[in-house]
Amino acid sequence: MSEKLELVYEGKAKKLFQTENPNILWVEYLGQATALNGKKKDIIEGKGELNNKITSTIFERLHEKGIQTHFIKQISESEQLIEKMEMIPLEVVVRNIAAGSFTRRLAVEEGSVLPFPIVEFYYKEDALDDPFINDDHVKALNIATSEEIELLKKSALAINQALITIFKEINIRLVDFKLEFGKNVNGEIVLADEVSPDTCRLWDATTNERLDKDIYRKDLGDILPIYDEVLKRFESTK
Ligand code: TMP
């Protein structure tokens, strides 16, 4: 059994602790919701447990499909063990259907199916509000090399295909999502962070009901029953 040692990082939704193994971190998912880069913030008891369980399930299903992630195992309702990564400061967004900032910026109608999945990079820097950047910016800022950029895009698209299948099994359309990658001790680029209704846009495939954080971002209601619905659907396909 691993031991929970000192706090090494505290983010908006998670705390990371060192364990006795230098390559393994202990993650605690928090009952906190934020939007607008932290400007909107609320304590939502139970959200940490739901996101921990949903992310654990999704990472296990990605592993079954041959996709490597930092996830080791879920250890409690709100905690999991992960491989320690040197994080790449990018938010890699993949879009299948127009929504969110894509519709606002480009005046494309929400719900339009894109002709192919679009990959975008955002520079993960709170002080700058995570600006949209292109491949040249990523290279010029020494965030990643050309080869690494290609690998990030290829991985993001492969993960997209796997996630589309994983969500289709629970009658959900994967509209778009955000990924974060890190480098493990062997220097391999691996999927990290979380994949949950906080980081994906998920629409019911039959009714288009929103099953994700847009409910919170747009003040459309309580997110707990919505996230619980996503978890229940996963549990029904175990
Ligand atoms: P966007 O439409 O606001 O750019 O978001 C695209 C996707 O990325 C959406 O599924 C929500 C997710 N996302 C995050 O997980 N974290 C973020 O900080 C942002 C901006 C988006």
TrEMBL record:
GO terms for biological process: 'de novo' IMP biosynthetic process; cobalamin biosynthetic process. Pfam families: SAICAR_synt. InterPro entries: SAICAR_synt/ADE2_N, SAICAR_synt_PurC, SAICAR_synth, SAICAR_synthetase, SAICAR_synthetase_CS. It comes from the Bacteria. Its EC number is 6.3.2.6. One of its GO terms (molecular function) is phosphoribosylaminoimidazolesuccinocarboxamide synthase activity. Transmembrane segments: none annotated. It is an enzyme of class 6 (ligase). This is Phosphoribosylaminoimidazole-succinocarboxamide synthase. It comes from Pilibacter termitis.
